[in-house]
Amino acid sequence: MSVPASRSIANTQRFHTGRIPFSIIEHWAFKKFLKALSPAYVKSLFKRNALSRTHLDEVYKDTVETTDALLEKIPGKETIIVDGFKDRNGRHVMNISKAKPGFASYFKTSWFGRKTHKGATYAAEVEKCITQKTLAVCADNTSTNTGQIKGMFGILKRKFSGLFFIGCCVHTMDLLCEGWAKIDQLVTTIKKVKDIIQFVRRYSILHEEFRFLQKQRHLVNSSASMKGLREFPDTRFAYAYLMIVMCWDNWSVFLELVESEAYKTLKKQKGKRSAAAFQSFEDCLSASFKRELRDAKAVLSYASVTLHELEGDKQLSSIVVPAYCIFFYCISRINEEPDMTLSAQTRTEIIDEVWGSVCRSERISHVVSTGQDALDRRWF
Fold first, then answer.
1. Is residue 280 part of a domain?
2. Taking the chain, what is the end-to-end CA distance rounded to the nearest angstrom?
3. N or C terminus: which one in the chain shows less Cβ crowding within 10 Å?
């Protein structure tokens, strides 16, 4: 391969991995930049069409060969991992990956277009990916995926009796976390938090004053948060937690805001029409609500840290099930205020009890080594 061609591949990789618009390659400033680095290369610089077609196809082909080779080197059979979502255009998409212990790689993406989003549609797509090397299929725990009659798992089980069909543990934990945000005490706190954010953002003069006070605080204390105020739908656990953190980190700014001249002037201008809204905002800044906010943050942060740790790509597979069992145990006993500092023996008993009941209900064999928190490697 010639030098210009090899540089073209490297350039394509940079555009793709950095999510840089392909049109940039024809921009005069970018060409001037390249000319300063390598005048000879600019003469052979390709157009955006070559970047998005010819060279991108070559990069994709090389990447597929590399990942397939790595997957092949790892002993054992493959697990097919399925994840459905909607893309930025609102089209229903299914990403399919293949994994072995310690390594997972992207396999393909499917768009369903006008096809009905039901178990039969998903099963037909996943069936194309199943080979003699396949051991299991893992998917989110929706009825469309895991239903035993019309769901994807049910349809595939009748065709492939020797495969394992696994509902994703981390997805289950995500649903459990969302359940936390629906606890009565937290629902009330989240509503007040949302009211605070909406009130400040409603009036541009207040929002600007908030940003000014936040910057002033940061000048005095460089470690002070500069998080802005954003309103998220409170239907998801992560969104509710983000709004709580925003208000907690900016509590001192809110207290300064109600004492600012801008706030007092705006309150006077609005008069009786908005008196209730201003009074409600001030009531939310009480010491009692601050304690509510602190407790809500403490409760949700426990779930948030656990979930994000398990969703990371640096965790051993063997950690997922033990963490799931402990987490499920604590969630199911949240009203009893369980002791979070569990002894090793208690953790062992919980893992055996929770995971044992899951396996009995699904008729799945398992091996859990409580000493090393290890799970039978066939799962992965």
1. yes
2. 39
3. N
Q: Mapping DSSP to helix (H, G, I), strand (E, B) and coil, where does residue 93 land?
A: strand
CA dihedral 339→340→346→351, nearest 10 degrees, is 130
Residue count of the chain, please give it.
380
Calculated CA dihedral for residues 220, 226, 231, 234, nearest 10 degrees:
-100
CB atoms within 10 A of CB 122: 25
In angstroms, the CA 214 to CA 207 distance is: 10
Mean of the per-residue pLDDT values of the chain: 78
DSSP-assigned beta bridge partners for residue 97? 81, 106
What range does the domain containing 15 cover? 3-62
Q: Where are the alpha helices (DSSP H) in 101-183?
A: 119-127, 143-146, 152-159, 169-180
Structural domain tally of the chain? 4
CA 297 to chain centre: 19
Q: Is the pLDDT of residue 215 over 90?
A: yes
Selection from 330, 318, 335 nearest residue 354 by Cα? 330
**Residue 204, burial from CB neighbour count under 10 angstroms (0-12, 13-18, 19+):** exposed
**Predicted TM-score (pTM) of this structure:** 0.60
Q: Do the domain assignments include residue 308?
A: no
Report which of 103, 76, 81 is spatially closest to residue 94, judged by C-alpha positions.
81
Query: Helix, strand, coil shares of the chain as percentages rounded to 5?
Result: 65, 10, 25
Phi and psi, residue 85, nearest 5°: -165, 180
Q: Which amino acid is at 292?
A: E
- Domain boundary at 12, 35, 62, which? 62
Q: How far is CA 273 from CA 56, 263, 269, 367, in A?
A: 60, 16, 10, 66
Q: Other C-beta atoms within 10 Å of 216: how many?
A: 12
User: pLDDT digits over 128-164, tens only?
Assistant: 999 999 999 999 888 888 888 889 999 999 999 889 9
Report the alpha-carbon distance of residue 30 to residue 157 in Å, rounded: 54
Burial call 270-308: b when 16+ CB within 10 Å, e when fewer:
eeeebeebbeebeebbeeebbebbeebbebbeebbebbe
From the list 326, 323, 321, the residue with the least C-alpha distance to 350 is: 326
Both 55 and 105 in a single domain?
A: no
